[in-house]
Design the sequence.
């Protein structure tokens, strides 16, 4: 039974999708409501898809109701499955991930899971492109709550259900690239690990006082030491 639970953010932490998510959101608003370029100026950083889409409805001058969400999501999922394969965009694993994740997965004391603002279905579509899904059996997603901080107890409960045992907060790590990743960990006493390899510089993330702050995850051995 694993003693450490590592909760990985997806975008900007494991992978960079070359804007596939934004293009898909824009296409969904255009197709359903005829509103072009709705996502311009909307911050994605560490926010859940539910919150992003609610803001986008407002920006487009559309009333949002929960009834709209299933239809929007099903169109968005179709587009993301296209856009993740679109040519002409740079898509990549973030530094160190290709080596680190299989190594962590092999470690008997470590359980890998997801904590992401993506909806589960689009998360799995993105992860599938990079063949990462087999390493992450479960997770907490925007489907579980629009508030990122509420995803931490959801992920921990899924660990409990899976292994039939509890885990101490200081053995749970929330690993992400934005201030929101750091802030969601704080109320739960779990360990926040900020990685400054994407849009948020090291000095900016430092202001949020993560427990651990790294430039990237490329030094496999020192990252392994943190978790073992
Ligand atoms: Mg992220």
Sequence:
């Amino acid at each position: 039974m694993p003693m450490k639970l590592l909760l990985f953010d997806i975008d900007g932490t494991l992978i960079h999708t070359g804007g596939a998510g934004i293009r898909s959101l824009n296409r969904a608003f255009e197709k359903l409501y005829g509103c072009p370029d709705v996502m311009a100026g909307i911050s994605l950083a560490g926010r859940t898809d539910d919150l992003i889409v609610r803001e986008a409805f407002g920006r487009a001058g559309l009333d949002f109701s929960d009834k709209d969400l299933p239809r929007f999501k099903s169109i968005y999922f179709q587009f993301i499955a296209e856009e993740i394969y679109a040519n002409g965009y740079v898509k990549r694993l973030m530094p160190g991930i290709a080596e680190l994740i299989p190594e962590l997965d092999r470690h008997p004391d470590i359980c890998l899971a997801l904590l992401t603002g993506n909806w589960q279905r689009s998360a799995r579509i993105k992860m599938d492109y990079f063949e990462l899904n087999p390493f992450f059996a479960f997770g907490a997603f925007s489907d579980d709550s629009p508030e990122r901080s509420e995803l931490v107890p959801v992920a921990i409960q899924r660990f409990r259900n899976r292994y039939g045992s509890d885990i101490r907060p200081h053995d749970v790590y929330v690993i992400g690239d934005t201030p929101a990743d750091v802030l969601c960990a704080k109320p739960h006493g779990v360990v926040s690990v900020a990685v400054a390899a994407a849009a948020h510089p090291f000095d900016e993330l430092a202001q949020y006082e993560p427990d651990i702050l790294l430039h990237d995850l490329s030094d496999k051995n020192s990252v392994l030491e943190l978790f073992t």
